[in-house]
Amino acid sequence: MTPGVVVIGRNEGERLRRCFDSIVGTTPSVVYVDSGSTDGSVAMARSMQVEVVELDLRLPFTAARARNAGYRRLKLLQPELACVQFVDGDCELAAGWLEKAAALLDARPDVAMVCGRLRERHPERSIYNLLCDIEWDAPAGRSRACGGIAMARVPPLDASGGYREDLIAGEEPELCLRLRAQGWAIWRLADDMALHDAAMTRFGQWWQRSIRAGYAFAEGAFLHGSGPERHRVRESCSALVWGVALPSTAVLGLAGWGAWGLLPLAAYPLQIVRLGMSGSRPPRQRWLRALFIVLGKFPEAMGNIKFRIHHAAGSGSRLIEYK
User: What pLDDT does residue 321 have?
Assistant: First the structure.
């Protein structure tokens, strides 16, 4: 089983070159989908003999739209394509990953998508990079979903219709949900899959990324929350409870009962302690993760509300970028 590769990106610069260096020559077909770059990414891709798809600037950009466009071009280049590896342009595939993922699909005909361990390239450079690395440290084996860097089997991908292009985020778990509903399995290997370069060094970037996550939670719950899995309902409700309901209750309580009305706010440090005491990571990483999970409920709530406003206004999803 020989995979093709689809790379998506926008203004990734040197990170995109590293991405191509890790792929070109390891597979017969590589397609790069560009979402309006102004940094010479398209010319660089062509100079490295990579097939390029430039998305129409008149239509909204989403990662899902880019992946689908690249996949369609890849199938034209490689008609007998059996599987496709999707990669973001800020990632570098690990040596041997394509062979390991393809071998898993060969050995497990019930698996539609396979992913591996995604690692942050520079977790030491910022708290926010470190948080990404912790987030991606998921257990191996059968999984409910994978991220944007994953290998997919062609028949189930075709049958599902691919990624939902109007989603600005959360398109990967949404696709995995539909695949699992059709009886397919999603699998995570313990092997290293790729290095990711988040380059997230500012609090504002992390905040925007968390707003986008909250938006995705609310949209996912709207689309599939009534199904048997209650998709994204828990995450969406959690953001609203911690990010809106609790502080609102405290403000109202302050007006009615004075300082005693602030008692609900004690839930925040208690939740940090509960989360910080769990997990196998070093203590510093556990406590940082706990702090930012709780703090993240506020931007997630903002994203949740943003989705509801957009939906009520019929304005559709709008890309939320953090880079």
Answer: 66
Q: How far apart are CA 82 and CA 78, in angstroms?
A: 9
Q: Which two tokens stand for residue 248?
A: 């609102």
Contacts of 149 (CB under 8 A, 6+ apart): 86, 87, 88, 91, 115, 118, 193, 194, 196
Q: CA 86 → CA 153, 198, 274, distances in Å? A: 11, 17, 36
Q: Which amino acid is at 113?
A: M
Name 113's bridge partners: 152, 186
Q: pLDDT digit string (tens) for 91-138?
A: 999 999 999 999 999 999 999 999 999 999 999 999 999 999 999 999
Kindly give, in sequence order, each residue whose CB lies less than 8 Å from that of residue 320, ignoring residues fewer than 6 positions away. Answer: 168, 169, 208, 211, 212, 215, 303
Q: Which pair of structure tokens corresponds to residue 192?
A: 């290293």
**CB-based contacts of 228: which residues, under 8 Å, 6+ apart?**
none
For residue 166 the two structure tokens come to: 């109007």
13-48 per-position pLDDT tens digit: 899 999 999 999 889 899 999 999 999 999 999 999
**For the chain, what's the residue count?**
323
Give the number of other CB atoms < 10 A from CB of residue 92.
Answer: 20
CATH superfamily ID and name for 4-201? Spore Coat Polysaccharide Biosynthesis Protein SpsA; Chain A (3.90.550.10)
Residue 260: DSSP 8-state: G
Cβ within 8 Å of residue 319, ≥6 positions away: 60, 61, 62, 168
End-to-end CA distance of the chain: 36
For the chain, the structural domain boundaries read 4-201, 220-313
d(CA 210, CA 217): 10
Predicted confidence (pLDDT) per residue in 237-277, tens digit = 999 999 999 999 988 887 778 777 788 899 999 999 999 99
Overall pTM > 0.85: yes
Position 280, amino acid: S
Report residue 60's pLDDT band, with 50, 70 and 90 as the boundaries.
confident
